[in-house]
Amino acid sequence: MPIEAESPEQFGYDRIRFNLAESSVADTPLRDLAVPLDDLVLMYGDHMGRPGLRVAIAATDAGLGGERGERLTPEDVLVTPGAAAALFIISTTLLQAGDHLIVARPNYATNLETPHAIGADISYLDLRFEDGWAVDPDRIAALLTPRTKLVSLTNPHNPTGQVMPASTVRAVLDLVEAHPQARLLMDETYREMTFGGPQPVTAALSERAISVSSLSKADGLPGIRVGWLVTRDWPLMERFLAAKEQILITNSVVDEAIAEVAMARRPERLETILAGIQTALGITRDWMAAQDTFEWVEPAGGVVGFPRFRPGVDVDADEFYRILLDEYGTVVGPGHWFDQPRRHFRLGFGWPTPDELSQGLAALSAAAGAARR
User: Residue 196, CB half-sphere, CA atoms under 13 Å: how many?
Assistant: First the structure.
């Protein structure tokens, strides 16, 4: 996958001045969490995940019962090494060669490439800039067949930052529930960063839904590799657990111990993190308004957007990326990472400092000017 081979981690952070390719907030030093690890026994952990961690995940405000959905329990949660492992487990458990799924595009590469590697029959729900990257349930309905095993969406969406209204989520769930073999996979790794406040965990709304999230994006903890999947379908959870045991047996008990402390301190940490995101979004919004080379649909959640060159701008996209990196030390996520034209790119505004963000945005304008034809 090009997103992996060309990522800042592989390219080398020391070669980058202004990193606008990241899809998370700034990384957190371990000292900020003050985790007591000296007495931790380095054993095989609970195969489902550390019990206290699963309790904390199930107790999210959007997992409550009543009109918002059924109350989640720790038994509804399977902890995995990041959301990527959860997505892999889901695809390899539910799909075989020839099985049909519907997946939104553009999308995070794992949601596209793992089903493709399995040999699944994929129908792409191609989201469109002109529609505000919105998910249209009627278009999903037209793609559904009696063979459909999975509908795969992300909310908030990576890479566009768009958020599905609750009414759209419910409409999609109604469609899925009307097809006996189908399930809805909702990748919710940016859920806590929805600007209007987090929506319910989709798995709390239906036994036919599977939610995926992690501590990598909103919490700035990608290095401990802790994510999870949630489903209230317990027979299906047993299959997911079996898949995890075949691949991993168990997670790192060190990572899970850190994650449990992070979850306990999450409310106060998120308050600071969300304030920083709004500052970064404001800087990016002002830059977008002051130039006429790029356009975007402003994100409604997360820390990424998906700008593109305006249709009338004649530019050599390959030269733009070369100049941006070689002359300005700046990186973004080019469109081909998401199976889209290179005139698009993912812009990560939450990871750099405000000063780095401002300088990186200025570099985008300068590189675009130099690459015009």
Answer: 12
249 φψ region: left (φ > 0), alpha (ψ -120 to 50), beta (else): left
Question: CB atoms < 10 A from the CB of 102, how many?
Answer: 25
Give me 158's structure tokens.
């990576």
Helices marked H in 15-70 = 51-58
How far lies 134's CA from each of 79, 154, 238, 261, 268, in Å? 30, 11, 34, 36, 32
Position 8, amino acid:
P
Q: Where in the chain is the domain with CATH 3.90.1150.10?
A: 2-28+268-370
Candidates 3.40.640.10, 1.10.10.60, 3.40.50.280, 3.40.50.300; correct CATH number of 39-264? 3.40.640.10
**Block mean pLDDT (10 aa), the chain, length 373:** 60 81 93 92 95 93 50 95 96 96 91 92 97 98 97 96 96 96 96 92 95 95 96 97 95 96 92 95 98 97 97 96 95 92 96 97 98 92
CB neighbourhood size of 348 (10 A): 27
What is the rounded distance in angstroms from the CA atom of residue 367 to the CA atom of residue 316?
10
DSSP 147-199: TEEEEEEESS-TTT-----HHHHHHHHHHHHTSTT-EEEEE-TTGGGBTT-PP
